[in-house]
């Protein structure tokens, strides 16, 4: 809990805004959501909006693993040992870390899982853990998008490294090609934002994660989102899917 000293330095308007947001959430149903979609499908744009709208906690497994290792929790110590040996962290360990995180006050109304489960085995283990808690996944949002559209989206991204400003050759080009509008410094492309890297990531996604969509489809909880639409249109589709 933040001490009163911490809060004294927070402007009243910020406290009131946060309070109103939380009050608004209280009237909304709890949600346990999984976001599935290939890189560049827009999950990162939509997830903070959903998080704020429903007062959910965002569980990104990579970040959680790093946090558990840094905090030296029992599971974090186990994960660190595995990583140091060059082994993959086991599914049980990741599910345990999710289980631990879900007990936080910020996860009271539910959670958004992003980047997990990536395989059917992980989905089964996650469901088993939730079942023990008497809950289940409410909705799986599938950010469906054609590979060709993704390639255009991703390979067109350019970044100004020191400010983080992003451009896109087609959708948001800089005034001068390859140059930041504000500073006039050169733009770079992320190592991951190339067609070759995207191709291998998409292959892994189709091979491992599409069966997860089938697994949840059989449970009737998958909502297909047309992720090629504009962010605003996708937000409207998300709201529709979550209110049903």
Automatic annotation (TrEMBL):
Provide the GO MF annotations for this entry.
AMP kinase activity; ATP binding
Q: Does the keyword Calcium apply?
A: no
InterPro entries for this protein: Adenyl_kin_sub (IPR006259), Adenylat/UMP-CMP_kin (IPR000850), Adenylat_kinase_CS (IPR033690), Adenylate_kinase_lid-dom (IPR007862), P-loop_NTPase (IPR027417)
Q: Which Pfam families match?
A: ADK (PF00406), ADK_lid (PF05191)
- Catalysed reactions listed for this entry: AMP + ATP = 2 ADP
What Enzyme Commission number(s) appear in the record? Answer: 2.7.4.3
Q: What keywords sit in the KW lines? A: Kinase, Nucleotide-binding, Transferase
- What residue stretches are annotated with the Adenylate kinase active site lid domain? 157-192
- Top-level EC class as recorded in UniProt: transferase
PANTHER family assigned to the protein according to its UniProt record, in alphabetical order: NUCLEOTIDE KINASE
The free-text function statement in the UniProt record for this protein reads: Catalyzes the reversible transfer of the terminal phosphate group between ATP and AMP. Plays an important role in cellular energy homeostasis and in adenine nucleotide metabolism.
HAMAP family cross-referenced by the UniProt entry:
Adenylate_kinase_Adk
* Record-linked NCBIfam families: adk, PRK00279.1-2, PRK00279.1-3
Question: Which family is this protein grouped under?
Answer: Belongs to the adenylate kinase family.
Name this protein carries in UniProt: adenylate kinase
Organism encoding this protein: Coptis chinensis
